[in-house]
Design brief:
Helix content is 28%, strand content 28%. With 446 residues, it is α+β, with helices and mostly antiparallel strands. Helix 7 packs across helix 10 and helix 8 runs antiparallel to helix 9. Strand 2, helix 2 and strand 3 form a beta-alpha-beta unit. It has four domains: 93 residues, Rossmann fold (3-Layer(aba) Sandwich); 64 residues, ATP-grasp fold, A domain (Dna Ligase, domain 1, 2-Layer Sandwich), CATH 3.30.1490; 147 residues, D-amino Acid Aminotransferase, Chain A, domain 1; 85 residues, Glycinamide Ribonucleotide Synthetase, Chain A, domain 4. It is built from 13 helices and 27 strands. Strands 12, 15, 20, 22, 25 and 27 form a six-stranded antiparallel sheet that branches. A five-stranded parallel sheet has the order 3-2-1-4-5, with helices on both faces. Strands 6-9-7-8 form a four-stranded antiparallel sheet, sandwiched between helices.
Length: 446
């Protein structure tokens, strides 16, 4: 049965892309968003309920006769929104709070991976500065330091500077940067190329969406601090069909079995942040990990990977998510279109260190209405005929093409028409061999 009324929870570019793709199903379901944003409000009915207000979202779903709720952000999952909806008998695609600990605690994820036999870097969790500093010296450079809990995509530091690593670890433990964490995770550094594979899961069965590569660093050439994501390309060239097979068999399937055995079956989007490794990439203990190692899990759709993946997804997307929510997802429920897609993030000029909120972006509206070009809004505010930048990542321009190279040309040609002030973008999203490969251990999309 076709799903006719859907509520998407969240307010970012990921949620805009989800709402857009759900509305494109052949039966044209009515899509509602909460709290949404000004860009989404032009197309979708918008409610004023916070994404972490579980009781309010349950009431809204009932009042609007919603048949499926799709939860976007990790903050909503951590607040138990999915649990409240399931308890109320409302179908929900989104991990339970217990299952979402795979993202909300990096150390919990490591424990489950060890239990499931999933390949990943060795790691240590410490609650004191002295222990963390000792671990940094034991593992050596490059140092990988992670805040244990949620950190809006910025809780990872990769550096060869021991003083910088120590300072970051101290900030994580003190709560001065990311709030109370309790412990910090120190990991072994892995070499390879990063990629993101998202699995739609119903607790037992799953299917993989087109793989993507996110560009995390703030500036061209993968320089600067980690951000929530400056753009993405799909499909990721490094993820071959063989890499997908290995990911399905050695990562997703054992994680689902282990989570179910623990009494916390995983229903929702499982984001697998991977390091795809060459046969020569190895370090102290990592040589036995094989071609794929897990950097981290996120308990939801990636941002901005979703904006690049979804234009390539073919089939009844709402039916697939509804089937997963009810534990009956068919592995062939969706298929992939040919070609590629590239997404470019338009961000505040100070992002990610500061958000000044003084930017304006002109020309976004003129980009819409084409079959190969899409604009997804996040931190924007409508002011007359102008879009103002109010958040770190303001909007995303996504283009599709016969291949990723064509999509990239179209996306940057579109961005070249934009005007305004106090915003920026990277100029090398989806570029070829001339751009340094992502060899750093810095995943964690917001």
């Amino acid at each position: 049965m076709a799903i006719s009324r859907i509520l998407v929870v969240g307010s970012g570019g990921r949620e805009h892309a989800l709402a857009w793709r759900l509305a494109r199903d052949a039966h044209a379901p009515h899509v509602i968003v909460t709290p949404g944003n000004d860009g989404m409000a032009r197309t979708f009915e918008r409610l004023d309920v916070s994404e972490t207000d579980a009781a309010g979202i349950v009431r809204a779903a009932r009042e609007h006769a919603v048949e499926l709720v799709v939860v976007g952000p990790e903050s909503a999952l951590a607040a138990g929104v999915s649990d409240a909806l399931v308890e109320a008998g409302i179908p929900c695609f989104g991990a339970s709070r217990a299952a979402a600990r795979l993202e909300s605690s990096k150390w919990f994820a490591k424990e489950v991976m060890r239990e499931a036999g999933v390949p990943t870097a060795r790691a240590f969790a410490w609650a004191t500065e002295a222990e963390a500093f000792a671990a940094l010296e034991t593992l050596g450079a490059p140092h990988v330091v992670k805040a244990d809990g949620l950190a809006a995509g910025k809780g990872v530091l990769v550096t060869s500077d021991l003083a910088e690593a120590r300072a970051f670890a101290a900030d994580c433990l003190s709560g001065s940067r990311f709030g109370a964490q309790g412990r910090v995770v120190i990991e072994e550094f892995l070499r390879g190329e990063e990629a993101s594979v998202i699995a739609l899961c119903d607790g037992e069965h799953f299917l993989l969406l087109p793989p993507a590569r996110d560009h995390k660093r703030a500036f061209d050439g993968d320089a600067g601090p980690n951000t929530g994501g400056m753009g993405a390309v799909a499909p990721a060239p490094v993820v071959t069909r063989e890499i997908e097979r290995v990911t399905a068999e050695r990562v997703v399937a054992p994680m689902l079995r282990t989570m179910a055995a623990r009494g916390t079956p995983y229903v929702g989007a499982l984001y697998c942040g991977l390091m795809v490794r060459s046969t020569h990439a190895h370090s102290t203990e990592a040589g036995s990990l094989g071609p794929v190692a897990v950097v981290e899990f996120n308990a939801r759709f990636g941002d901005p990977e979703t904006q690049a993946m979804l234009p390539l997804v073919v089939g009844d997307f709402s039916a697939a998510l509804a089937a997963a929510a009810q534990g009956r997802l068919a592995p062939d429920a969706l298929s992939r279109g040919s070609g590629g897609a590239v997404t470019i993030a338009l961000v505040d000029e100070g992002y990610p260190v500061s958000t000044f909120g003084t930017g304006t972006i002109e020309g976004l509206d003129a980009l819409e209405g084409r079959g190969d070009l899409f604009v997804f809004h996040a931190g924007t505010r409508r002011d007359g005929d102008t879009w103002r930048v109010k958040g770190g990542r303001a909007a995303y321009v996504t283009a599709t093409g016969e291949n990723a190279a064509t999509a990239r040309e179209r996306a940057y040609a579109a961005c070249a028409t934009l005007r305004g002030a106090h915003w920026r973008m990277r100029s090398d999203i989806g570029a070829g061999p001339g751009v340094p490969a992502a060899t750093q251990h810095g995943m964690g999309g917001q």
